[in-house]
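Database export, one record per block. Field names are fixed; values are copied verbatim from the stored entry.
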Amino acid sequence: VEGKRCVDSANDLWKKVKIDFVYKSSDFNSPGHNEMETDIIICWIHDWEDCPVEVLELRSAIQLLDGSSPF
């Protein structure tokens, strides 16, 4: 998936990022995934301590929601 990430909110600057979705971050280590073509891994469980790609663990991110989000 291709997405965008805000890199400078004051100047409204965005950067394209390539995203890969897996259930566990360690699943990214299986065939079909390429760290050279991935900027961010989004997963439910981050279980790969030495992962060479930035990881967003949804399980932890959801805990940060305080009820003010419309989602």
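Remark 1: The beta strands are 2-8, 13-21, 40-43, 54-57.
Remark 2: The radius of gyration is 14 Å.
End of record.
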